[in-house]
Amino acid sequence: MKSAATLSGSHRGRPGARARLWPCATLALLLAGCGEEHLRKYPQTTFHPTTEFARISDWLFWLSLGLGVGVGVLVLGIMGYFLWKFRYHPGAGEPKQIHGNTRLEVAWTLIPAVILAVIAIPTVKAIFATQPDPARLPANTVTIEVVGKQWWWEFRYPQPNGDTVVTANEVHVPVGRTVHLVLLSDNVLHSFWVPQMGGKRDLITNRVNHLVFTPEEPGVYFGQCAEFCGTSHSLMRMRLVAHTQAGYDQWLANEARPAVEPLPGDSAVALGKQMVTTGACVACHTIEGTPMTMRTGPNLTHFGRRRTLAAGIMENNAENLRRWITNAPSVKPGSKMPPMGEHVGGSLTDQQITYIIAYLQSLQ
Ligand code: CUA
Predict the structure, then answer these.
(1) Cβ count near 103 (within 10 Å)
(2) Which parts of the chain register pLDDT below 70?
(3) Three-state DSSP state, 40
(4) Quick one: residue 149, left, alpha or beta (phi over 0 = left, psi -120 to 50 = alpha)?
(5) How many A from CA of 310 to the centre of ligand 1?
(6) For residue 20, what pLDDT is reported?
């Protein structure tokens, strides 16, 4: 399964693939039978490709699986037949001993070579098909910089006017246009993976990687980091939101605006704003339109609009936000955000956290 989804860079290789095929085949057949129900239950799936890239990966998976199952059935079948045919008979004596058979040896060298070629040719074609030259993409390509962090994602949208729209953990794209992700890391290795969009690709500290695909269907797609990057690697998730062009334009125009100001008379939000923009949050976060400009933590300018919290691990609601602000490391082990609640060594009272939640939720 992994080799089909991983089309980039070095390979974990196919040797031993045959041994893994039986459980894999059973699982795949079970999953493939479930259709939409499977997608609802397991949204982070490679079995519902929605881009050309993902379809190519999917096809390679089924091709290698089919050939592997064919070889497996044949070999085990022949073995079973001989076990039965030459089983022990009382008084049968020793069977006739033979040594060497050129025709057989040529056959069992050639047949696997042909099978490997049948897998290798489409694999090599797929590598080229899914790695276009970033300098030769269509003129209306959407370019997004993706920065892997411990343990969240920063998404940066360079704008024609020189500004950059920055968001986190939720990457928005239009359907029908080429999306070009420029993958970077300023810390350790990560790997961008939204299976329905295509294969995994690493984010590396000393080189820039590229991932190119064209979303076809509007929707919310699940993804996560696919390269071990420390304590909370498995909690480094994300959503990819594919919009119609109009929906995307609307989203981007809103993201490009500075943060929403508290409404006159909404004192909880105004108090929350004061706490956020003058308190500890200033040390790590940016909120456009306020004095906050740090990039250690996610940009919060339109935080209230995000579906999830803490890199896709929980729904963005007041209750989860309180858990997160009070004691982030209890939710995400190793989190660089320290516990803020006064019961756990921080400086914020429950009431102050209530105001902060009100302000963060107002950032639409
Ligand atoms: Cu980032 Cu694993």
Answers:
(1) 7
(2) 1-34
(3) helix
(4) beta
(5) 14
(6) 54
Please give the DSSP secondary-structure letter assigned to residue 194. Answer: -
Q: What atom in ligand 1 is closest to the CA of residue 190?
A: 1
Nearest CA to ligand 1 atom 1: 190
Count CB-CB contacts under 10 A for residue 88: 5
> Cα of 267 to ligand 1 centre, how many Å?
39
Burial class (CB in 10 A: 0-12, 13-18, 19+), 59: middle
pLDDT digits (tens, 9 = 90+) for 94-139: 878 888 899 999 998 999 999 999 999 999 999 999 999 999 999 9
Give the Cα-Cα-Cα angle 282, 308, 51 (nearest 5 degrees).
Answer: 120
* pLDDT on residue 5: 40
The token pair that represents 104 in the structure block: 């057989």
User: Among candidates 121, 119, 101, 99, which has minimal Cα distance to 109?
Assistant: 101
276 CB neighbour count, 10 Å cutoff: 22
Tokens read off for 336: 């660089």
The whole-number pLDDT of residue 13 equals: 42
Residue 198 Cβ contacting ligand 1 at under 6 Å: no
Helix axes 52-85, 17-32, angle to 10 degrees: 120
N- to C-terminal Cα separation, the chain = 40
Q: Find out whether the beta carbon of 227 lies less than 6 Å from any atom of ligand 1.
A: yes
Indicate the pTM of the whole model: 0.84
**Are 46 and 4 in contact, with CB atoms under 8 Å apart?**
yes
- State both tokens at 302: 């339109």
User: Ligand 1: which atom is nearest the Cα of residue 148?
Assistant: 1
pLDDT digits (tens, 9 = 90+) for 267-288: 999 999 999 999 899 999 999 9
332 lines ligand 1 (CB under 6 A): no
